[in-house]
Amino acid sequence: MSEQSKIHPPQVSEIWNAKEAWRMFGIMSEFAAATNRLMEIQPAVSIFGSARTPSSHPYYKKTEEIARLLSDAGFSVISGGGPGIMEAANKGAFYGKSPSVGLNIQLPHEQHNNAYQNVSQSFRYFFVRKVMFVKFASAYVVMPGGLGTMDELMEALTLVQTGKTRRIPIVLVGKAFWGGLLDWIRQTLLAEGMISPEDMNLIQLIDEPQEIVNAIFKHYETRGFELSEAEREMQLHL
After folding, report:
1. Which class is 40-235 in CATH?
2. DSSP helix/strand/coil, 211
């Protein structure tokens, strides 16, 4: 028996190959189910932030206020469906005029679905869920958060920068929290030519809830929220 066969016996490889093949159907099913479910929620704003933020924290209170204002202004509000900032976003929208949407992920820890969701969609695969956050969002509002929040922020910036999705407002909330990151981007990435000067315009730093709503409307005032044919085609290749 070869060394390769000792490491991966034929029957074990066949089982895992079969599982991997069937996994593709699960991924396709998640994409189809989520797309059909979320088609009617537009225009929508995705809000991100830490799952570890308690309801007594000022970040939670501000998120709830922002979400309520967005909901009353006609935006569905999309969050990750879990606790912390996600709960605050769903809660604010839930008591507003527009749908509160939770894109819930199955995790071994931290995540449990919050109770403030008009539309609730569950995912096993992180990357399918991430596509839905971008695909159906007219704007991103990014509250203070950890690695997951950074992941979503950088994903959105990369997709817009590379033209893989349409230009949308990406708003960071919390000047004290995000200021150091923006300084580093400006003083290191931009200074060393890793990004272009115009890339700095992809991010807005706004602290006041009503100003955030105003900035989103300002972005769309000359074109409306409906996707153009070119943008619809672009979204097909996310």
Report:
1. alpha beta
2. helix
